[in-house]
Amino acid sequence: MRHSRGLRTAAVTLPLLLAAVGCQTAQPAGEPAAKAASPTGKPVFEERLSAQLGAASRATAASGSARFTATVTYGSAGGDAVERTTGVLDYAKDTARVERSVVVPRRFPEKAATEDLGRAPGVDARERYAVEENTISYRTPRGTWLRYSASGSKEFTDTVSGFLEYAGEAAPWGRTLAEVVHHASAERSPERTAAGGRRYELKIYARTASEALPNEIAFHLNYARSDDKVPLTVELDKDGRLVRAQADFAPALGGLHAEGVLVGVTSLRADYVLAGHGSTKVPPVPAGEPSQDAEKTTTTVDALKPGACASEDTGLGSMTRILPVPCGKDADLRVFGHARVDKTVQGDPQGVGEAAAGEKCRSRYRSAPAAWTSGARPAGSFQVYGGTSISYEYTGADSTVSGDYTCYVSLR
Q1: One domain, residues 247 and 211
Q2: What is the pTM (predicted TM-score) of this model?
Q3: Distance of CA 48 to CAs 34, 232, 242, Å?
Q4: In a shared domain, residues 200 and 337
Q5: Is 199 part of a structural domain of the chain?
Q6: Based on the domain organization, do 64 and 157 belong to the same domain?
Q7: If we measure between CA atoms, which residue out of 272, 174, 190 comes closest to residue 238?
């Protein structure tokens, strides 16, 4: 028997009455060599061409600190959704202070917003984070910091592995084009900029560039294993330090759409800007603000008992873990049941698990106490969260669909 990958988990809103579920680059005459560090001790622009971007990444880190802005823009006929992350980086101490805003216009494709971006259309979210080496903390609106540490248990870190990637390799804050540039290899000689730096134009595999995208979207680019390449532009200053990068993911959208990801999104671009090299200070977390271990205070949604409430305000941007809270003003959802699916299918098994879970949750909705479901938004609707695995027989058309799902109502 062979197995497919597990389908991505998703929350699906279901109305109660509806059934749905190299070569050397010459140094220009008269120009001083860049002073940045490299494996051989050469200035960045004296390194062999294929090694210059890696050397630039090390030169950037050697500056000690910088300010950055990372932007991912999702274009659509209904407007652009923009995720913009700004902050300060201390490379020497491996720390960062970060603010992220996510703006999704009301006419943005709903499925792409809720399932792929983890935001509802019309949402304007603003979040704060702190990085201390391999620990990422998120500040809740209540002023409490939730700490996610890579030194936690395997069970915990497995559920937040994508989030922990924000503790980057090339910079203290990861999942930006800084990570992509760190591993990139130029093949064409760069253009000299007016300020004495260099501008590189290259194409790299989309799955490699996906390090600059949110983990959920990057997963699908990696899984597709396509040969799509995306254009990448990198600009270095006269000392060989990274100051700007841009990647256009339009060539990869077809593959994402085939996976059912970012459907309705017509353009996708990542940008990264650095400034203030060596002169930026990373402030401490304000004294007196409480901090909690996220492994102890959050849980998975399937661990909630029917009737229990939870908040999605965890900083993760998904429901991989939620925060149990008393039912009331701080609650975002209320669980009313769980559903297990095991089905043998002839023909196409895609969507079978979700449909079966939807029917089981519909039954549980109808029999649940009114207090558990009366606050549903939209009224008369419920949602299903879970994942499906599909196992195929080596012979014949049969497959087995199985998965565990949680039935809940959204309270906001």
Answers
A1: yes
A2: 0.83
A3: 13, 19, 17
A4: no
A5: yes
A6: yes
A7: 190
d(CA 14, CA 9): 16
Q: Are 322 and 299 in contact (CB under 8 A)?
A: yes
Residue-wise pLDDT tens digits, 164-207: 999 999 999 999 999 999 999 999 999 999 999 999 999 999 99
Total domain count, the chain: 2
∠ CA 117-119-125, nearest 5°, is 115
Banded pLDDT at 6 (limits 50, 70, 90)? very low
Query: Phi/psi of residue 312, each to 5°?
Result: -90, 5
199 and 139 belong to one structural domain? yes
Contact 250, 268 (CB under 8 A): yes
pLDDT in tens, 100-149: 999 999 999 999 998 898 888 887 889 999 999 999 999 998 889 999 99
- Tell me phi and psi for residue 311, to 5 degrees: -110, 145
Same domain, 306 and 394: yes
Is 269 domain-assigned? yes
Owning domain of residue 93: 44-275
Could you read off the pLDDT of 229-255 as tens digits, one per residue? 999 999 999 999 999 999 999 999 998
Is residue 53 located within the same domain as residue 7?
no
CA distance 106 to 113: 10
**Nearest in space to 212 (alpha carbons), one of 68, 67, 308:** 68
Q: Which residues, listed in sequence order, are joined to residue 410 by a DSSP beta bridge?
A: 333
Q: Which residues pair with 104 in a beta bridge?
A: none
250 and 382 together in one domain: no
26 domain-assigned: no
